[in-house]
Specification:
Layout (H helix, E strand, L loop, with lengths): L3 H17 L6 H4 L5 H17 L4 E7 L3 H6 L6 E6 L3 E3 L3 E2 L8 E10 L10 H7 E11 L9 H6 L4 E6 L15 E6 L2 E7 L7 H14 L9 E3 L7 E2 L5 E5 L5 E6 L1
Parallel strand pairs: 1-10, 3-7, 4-13
Antiparallel strand pairs: 1-2, 5-6, 5-10, 5-11, 6-7, 8-9, 8-12, 12-13
Helix pairs in contact: 1-3, 5-7
Protein name: 2-oxo-hepta-3-ene-1,7-dioate hydratase
InterPro entries: Fumarylacetoacetase-like_C (IPR011234), Fumarylacetoacetase_C_sf (IPR036663), Hydratase-Decarb/MhpD_sf (IPR050772)
Keywords: Lyase
Length: 260
């Protein structure tokens, strides 16, 4: 464990990295005793600083939802971060590439909560019952730390959240079998990735149930109206200025964005 003063220093460094678009030395290198609890506290302090500057927390993201990514990070469960309102984009947006350090894109589904949801003991059907809408979403991930990264570095760095793009059809959670939402991700007219939503822990709502129970342990939960990114079902694709992205979700619609 590290001290509260060290946690605040790490949060300040990450905030500076975000502003200056320059990655910092990994917190785990600066503070060798850094643990998961410290990392989530650093994330919370960073979020508090962003809120103090005018941002608003509008939801949460879940990462490491695939077994392969967990094994690569030496983890046995996902991680999570928060979504801020100044990082939300709609279908058709022109996004400034220089807002990020080294952005990558992932294909996901976003759940919009229709009611509050708290743990413990939350299960998939609780999530489905509490969800008002599900929409296609793209997550832009961006790391503010150098490599190689420990999982504590990623968590402290708000689980590498960069931005969120939503679009396509707005559906109710029982309208279709959301385990079998397929999508292709194209960059400049070439399909780079494809996947199906069942790759997210067997069911996209499974990660959200996990999140609700984790938040309960620290006195939190999900609120009505919040957006929750359920996790990626494709590998991340590098993006740069000039790229045009198209994510095709078939019957659930599509999302197109460009980076300028």
């Amino acid at each position: 464990m590290i001290t509260e003063e060290e946690r605040r220093a790490a949060a300040d460094a990450l905030l500076k990295a975000e502003i200056e678009r320059k990655p910092i030395i990994q917190p785990s290198e600066t503070y060798p005793n850094l643990e998961l609890e410290d990392a989530y506290r650093i994330q919370a302090l960073w979020a508090e600083a962003r809120v103090a500057k005018g941002a608003r927390i509008v939801g949460h993201k879940i990462g490491l939802t695939s077994r392969a990514m967990q094994m690569a990070s030496k983890m046995t469960e996902p991680d999570y971060g928060c979504i801020l309102d100044d990082a939300l984009y709609n279908d058709g947006a022109q996004i400034k590439a220089d807002l990020f350090i080294k952005p990558r894109l992932e294909v996901e589904l976003a759940f919009v909560m229709g009611e509050d949801l708290v743990g413990p003991g939350t299960r998939i059907y609780d999530v489905m019952r509490a969800t008002e809408f599900v929409v296609p979403a793209l997550e832009i991930i961006d790391y503010r730390t150098e490599v190689p990264r420990a999982i504590t570095d990623t968590i402290a760095d708000n689980a590498a959240f960069g931005a969120l793009v939503v679009g396509g059809r707005i559906i109710r959670p029982m309208d279709i079998d959301i385990r079998w939402v397929g999508a292709t991700l194209s960059k400049n007219g070439i399909i780079e990735e494809s996947g199906v939503s069942a790759a997210i822990m067997g069911h996209p709502a499974a990660g959200i149930a996990w999140l609700v129970n984790k938040l309960h342990a620290v006195g939190g939960g999900l609120k009505k109206g919040q957006i929750v990114l359920a996790g990626s079902f494709t590998r991340p694709v590098d993006i740069a200025k000039g790229d045009v992205i198209q994510a095709d979700y078939g019957p659930v619609g599509s999302i197109g964005v460009s980076f300028v």
